[in-house]
Amino acid sequence: MEKTYQIKIWKIIQIIFYNLLVSFIPFVIIGEFLLQIPQIFPVTFLAIIFYTSISCFRKEIIIKRNKISYFNFAGEEKVLDIIKNDVRIVESVESHIKSLRIKVKRYLKFTENGKRYLKNISWITSKEGNELKIYIWKYKHLFKRKVGKYENDILEEKNFNIPIEKLAILKEMDIKIKFFVISIINFVIFISFSEKGTEKFIIHLIYAIIVETILIIFYIEYYSNMKEKIQKKLPQNITIDNLKIIIDKKEFYKSDVKKITMTGLKIMEKSYFKILDVPKVLIIESSIRKQKFLIVPSGVNAKWKYPEYVLLFKSVRNWCFENGVEFIINGY
Fold it and tell me: Which residues share a beta bridge with 294?
């Protein structure tokens, strides 16, 4: 297999706009932006275009069997052996409070002469990064099988019991907390725009009570039995053996399964309001059906509340590698 990943045009444009924004921040801070921009903008714009073009020119990664080659504008920079250099794809999460955004940076991590190195490859897309990550995982797994370094439990039957009641309660608590916060914010907003003892205050108070009543009715209508709804969606047991995956009473044999998609282990949304608010799902596609299973509901931190998800993820991933089933990561 040989595949090439190159930096996309839209990514270069994104870098240019980001660099332009950063370069003008000092002028905004000192209050001279409007006065300086006619003189500064052309020079800064051309300089950033030149710098970005040079730094992004011919950036590409080529994978061929056990080799990963990294190129930049100066030519071939590194040729890494997946096994000897212990190549990995890792991500780091950076928060930007002002923009309420979460930025995920991706790195090529490898060992050379006993030292660890990180090469920033954030210029590849999330999909490409996941493809590269899966390729490395799969190659290492099959290499271990080839040289007889199997982990003892690879072919053993594994059982995963999902704590459906615990996860349903946590989801219900998450909704109640959000509802309470929204209610408080709504009440404060209505009251803060009027003076106490005035007619305007009374009108705003009535509006606040009406909105709060609507929110309560909405909650009772849609979320009063949330615990029972979540419990019905979550599977109770997942069993994995060498031939099949069993989810409750549904069996998926390796000869029928074409593709499995799972939420990544480091899933993050792009907003603080949705951070870790992503459901962890398992999607199995066979020749005759496609089924989606909710493992951990949104609003529940799987890392702390269901840490077994990591082992489940790795078990399903290795099962796919062993049986020639396509495995895809959703998220990071």
Answer: 281
